[in-house]
Amino acid sequence: MNNKKAVELKNISKIYGKRHAVDNLSFYVEEGDILGLIGPNGAGKSTTIKITLKLINKNSGTVKIEDYDLDTSYKKAIKHISFTSESPSFYEYLNGYENLRLVANLHKTISNDTIFDLLKSVGLIESYKKKVKTYSTGMKQRLGLARAMLSNPKIILLDEPTNGLDPRGMNDIYNLIKKLNRENKTTFIISSHLLHDIEKICNKVVLIDNGKTIFNGDMQSVLNKNINLFNIYTSNNSEAAELIKELDGVICISNNIDSITMKINSNDIINIDSLKKLLLKNSIQVTDVEKIKPSLETLFFLMTKED
């Protein structure tokens, strides 16, 4: 089933001096998707978010929100999308309700009932009379989500929504996102460094590096990739990784604390025993080798390898 495109970026470029922060970037998210936007630091995620919200101007390309061109039909486009940052700011001396009411006053149709419904949906109905300066980080994140939802947008863009939260707080935010997506059909674009969590909550993923789209597809297509991945545990991972890099048909994806993750090309016959002998020849003991399933993290390391 082909769903309507909620947001589409096409051939977007943003240049600062001689540096391409975003370089001919293209991707789209369909209505009802939860899309994870990932990439290394400096990949262009923040710039992409700002361009999508027209907080900065692009050098070229087009952005469409619900089929409206952001340049030529700004008001019609921007009303469908909302945003909350990794550290949402509020009037600390006001309570939760008062902060939302201030924003609601900018709109003609947002009633107190709507505000209280939102406070209930984000789990703050018991705390709405408390001053925001007494709120925990997680409560402020949830209030930020409520504020983003005030205008009943079709799309919400989140930048590091679980920044500074403990595992319980992170789980609360993710459950809330899934609830809003399920009940309201809200489309989410989530920029985050937490790949394990993105893998759990998102059904689509876009990986960008050096301002370019490196991967754009379904999360299941990542997890179902037919690639040979192994973790190898040795007595000296640093030296072992350097030796593995010299082997044809083997890609050293990451050097972990206790193991090395490597990809063996399916069209190359690589014998694990031969690899063990090579390492042993160099006085490196191999304690274990295990085949592992693909994950978003392995895709990230494989596709953003440093030169």
Automatic annotation (TrEMBL):
One of its GO terms (molecular function) is ATP hydrolysis activity. It holds the Pfam family ABC_tran. Keywords: ATP-binding, Hydrolase, Nucleotide-binding, Transport. InterPro entries: AAA+_ATPase, ABC_transporter-like_ATP-bd, P-loop_NTPase. The keyword Nucleotide-binding applies. Its EC number is 3.6.3.-. Residues 7-235 form the ABC transporter domain. It comes from the Bacteria. It is an enzyme of class 3 (hydrolase). The keyword S-adenosyl-L-methionine does not apply. Belongs to the ABC transporter superfamily. PANTHER family: ABC TRANSPORTER, ATP-BINDING PROTEIN. This is Putative ABC transporter ATP-binding protein YxlF. The gene is yxlF_8.
